[in-house]
Amino acid sequence: MIEELLPESVVTVETRGDDQDWGAPLYPGEQELVARSVEKRRREFAAVRSCARRAMEKLGVPAQAVLRGEHGAPVWPAGLIGSMTHCEGYCAASLVRATDLASLGIDAEPHEELPDDVIVSVALPTENDRLRELARQDASVHWDRLLFSAKESVYKAWYPLTGKWLDFFEADIELFADEGPARSGGLRAELLVPGPLVNGRHIRSFEGRWTVRGGLLATAVTVPRTGADAA
Fold first, then answer.
1. Dihedral angle at the C-alpha atoms of 34, 36, 40, 46, nearest 10 degrees?
2. What is the rounded distance in angstroms from the CA atom of residue 142 to the CA atom of residue 52?
3. 3-state DSSP helix/strand/coil percent for the chain, to nearest 5?
């Protein structure tokens, strides 16, 4: 599901709740990170790291522990960048060589309406206006949850480039639907704070893709090593 949202250079491994990854062993250093977590959280933690290790091997890198850096961001092997996501019954990890992309972020969510108390803390007035118009055009998609997922993917792509927090209100995201019956499309995030430097150029916006399928929705954002939308 997420693989189709990303360039061919990115390796994505995903798993459902009935796959063997959900019982995968943890590597040294990982056990301590979830020692006090409930069983469900430990299984998700193990499954998504199993996906990440399989992605490493596909890129010719020996499987190794995925530990946490500052603010909980995953620490990847030298020469790789990546992103992970998990929700009820689904996990995925996407990795790419650092020579191919500057950063990436992925997120998956249940395709359900976002609670009212969450959307008010996520969406800008301009985004709310666009959500209402999208819902008028196609009420079968939970656009509010899709916006939330897009913000998560934007943050995951932003943080490795800056080492800083990005508030929900610091990126204005526009969602676009593809033509035809397929429930997929693109997204563009205008950064409302100074963007990261990539190869000496300030990036002002991030772009990505989204899809809805099988009770889930997913978003992915990529930052090229050189971008046209820069200053």
1. 20
2. 28
3. 30, 30, 40
